[in-house]
Specification:
alpha+beta, four-stranded antiparallel sheet, 4 strands
Length: 140
């Protein structure tokens, strides 16, 4: 093989190899990132107490005694996520107002409150990840 032909084959070979270095990883595929599940490690603050708005358990009725702030959070989550249950939750479902301004919530509805709260936290994590991504910066 002559020196000219050898040089020409390297001129073509080097760009092809460098191009394959960049294109080959994109052909392999991408890995899907699944965020870890949200796990509550401590109760949230409600006013000056770290009790997530749960005051006590009422043995007579089998319901939980919650603050007015917790009841308003529950109703706000119903607006956003109430349709994820059948039948659809409506504001005030499972709540009974007491004379002192606090509420009783049934165990079944407290569980739904927790499920909606987890859904809300997961949506906030996804939104933060979008904002940090190139797509989120593009939308700004």
């Amino acid at each position: 093989m002559s020196l000219g032909k050898l040089w020409q084959s390297k001129v073509i070979l080097i760009p092809l190899l460098s191009l394959s270095v960049f294109l080959l990883p994109s052909c392999v595929g991408t890995r899907t990132y699944t965020p870890p599940p949200i796990v509550d490690t401590q109760p949230s603050w409600d006013g000056n107490k770290q009790n997530s708005g749960i005051i006590s358990y009422d043995v007579e009725s089998g319901n939980y005694h919650i603050t007015a702030n917790a009841a308003s959070r529950y109703n706000a989550l119903i607006d956003k996520y109430g349709d994820m249950f059948l039948p659809k939750l409506k504001k005030g479902d499972g709540l009974t107002k007491k004379n002192d301004g606090t509420y009783l919530i049934s165990t079944q509805h407290l569980i739904k409150f927790g499920q909606m709260n987890i859904k809300h936290k997961e949506s906030r994590v996804k939104l933060q990840k979008i904002k940090k991504s190139w797509f989120g910066r593009l939308l700004e």
